[in-house]
Amino acid sequence: MTLLTPLFMIGVFIVPILLASSSEDKTTIAIIDNNKFKEFRLTSSLNLEYTYLNELNLEQHKTTLIETYDFLLHIPKIDSIEQIESSIEVYSINQMSLSIKQNVENQIDKKLTNIYLLQSGINPDQIKKSQSKSTIKTYVVDEQGENTKGNSEASFGIGLVGGFLIYIFIFMYGTMVMRSVIEEKTNRIVEIIISSVKPFKLMLGKIISVALVGLSQFAMWIILGFVFLLIANGFISTDLDVTNLNANEAVLSSEIGSSLMALPIKSLFIVFLIYFLGGYLLYGSLFAAIGSASDQETDNQQFIVPITIPLILSFVIVQVVIDNPHGGLAYWLSMIPFTSPIIMIARIPFGVPLHELLFSISLLIGGFLLTTWVAAKIYRVGILMYGKKISYKELWKWLKYKD
Amino acid sequence: MNILEIKHVIKEYENKKALDSISLNVNEGRIFGLLGPNGAGKTTLIRIINQITAPDKGEILFSGERFKREHIQNIGYLPEERGLYKSMKVGEQCLYLAQLKGLSKNEAKQKIHQWFKKLDMLDWLNKKVEELSKGMAQKVQFVSTVLHQPKLIILDEPFTGFDPINSEIIKNEIIALKESGSTIILSTHRMESVEELCDDIALINAGQCVLKGSVNEIKNKFKEHIFEVQFEGTIQNEIQHFDTLVIESGRGIFKAKNKENTHTLIKQLVEQVNVTRFNEKLPTINDVFIQSINNE
Question: Is the ipTM of this complex over 0.95?
Fold first, then answer.
């Protein structure tokens, strides 16, 4: 799993790109144009391949053509070029997809616009030159008045990905802890172990060791992911027709790249680790408590739902937070320990004052100390309790039991 | 010498007394049967001896000392519900459990090898538990219970799940452990194993100890002065001071009306027939169990 997961993740990104760029996905379109407009001629592109068959008769060849080509585009005899806009017909066996339809329409519109401009005596190149494309450079100013070049797009991406990773990790390793507790309990091996080790130590040991598993897997994924990305990068860039990228996009993507480098990667990484560990410890101990209170994994839904709600909620709200990373909602959710691991990570790339960060981290530490304490109380009773349907009332009672 | 002394131990769960001032002594070097119906408090008592839970009140002495955490190294416990880590290798698992009980890695490895060789299980060491049959896994668990040579071994239903051959192997190992000086607490519902193995028993019901002592003492205490006789000839006259429970060709069962001396019975019998066999019918532990619980 450790090795396969990064492969899988990268596969998720690469496969669609490879599929999209493979030649087999070309859409073939036959055109019968019954006019003699020299100016209007559609040219094949990366995904669309046009074949002009003007000499053929539409009615005679319609059925054979739509079998051979994906689509048959027909421009009936018209009086003026302007009429093209409303007279083009497309025939096919399968309904034309929205994206192909828009693609074809775009090409037609571009051609016609150029023709109209020329007719009015305007050179289309002049229009192109006069079109403005502004880009705002954003700077983040710190307390010393130092400017750092910012990038909203990069911050957006990092925030979203970071929040998502924390969400996935907490869930993955939290349930790993829970399953392990349930296994030991149903095995009754726990009775042998806790006669030698205090339940609290056993629980904490389990949580910490899963955290170490998590960190080492994480480290391995980063290394492997980096290697794979390098390989994949080379693979894709030779395969993709780069000239097809429009110039602005190319500039934008290179700018995102450079501002990714400009972001304080090291401190981002450290903060990410703190929130990953803090969030995991907070939820991990609760997952351990749930595991101890259940006999089978199936009958603990009633306890799992309430602790996963804040997790799922914060994941859903991440998008809202990223749109307004300094608003009230973002602030408060990044303080509450149950939501702060995900929300704070999403806010960090947009800049969070140090005192807010420290306050949130201390709340998180306080939070996991509290949940660990509660979980330990439930755990020590739960692991020895069999054949009883556990209610919340019961859990409350366990909290008050003495050793 | 008592290896374990339990004095007035009380354990309550939500106002229900699981153990109600229970007192017991377990003699060193003997097999002690801990009996009682379901829900009597046996598991609670075993958990207290294993220091999984602590008593609310009362005192426990281990080899004459106040019960401490370190004593747990001298105890081996086989719980009733068996289970090991399924995806862990047998050898690694035994090593882990032995080290938990305070053995060094080398000591543990050596003991594991000894035991696995003795029980002919050496080729299981590198298998995962999930690849073993249920009986095999139980054997592994038995070994992991006794690996660290505990002074006190607690076996909760050790025979369930074993075929007769393996049951016999385990039974012989239990006897061998006793002979090597270990004390064994055997908790079971199988009365024939109690008869076969136990030197002493204690019967627990509703959190209290209703009966304790050596198996012989208890049987004597519960005996009903019933005698079984095999003979040649016919009994013509009524036997005085005894009720005749069964009389058929060559066999008779008699019960004394007032704990009469056996001598009176033998005297009357030999006057009439040729006695080939004479023995007192002692109650089985099963009878004792049922009688004591019903009397409660």
Answer: no
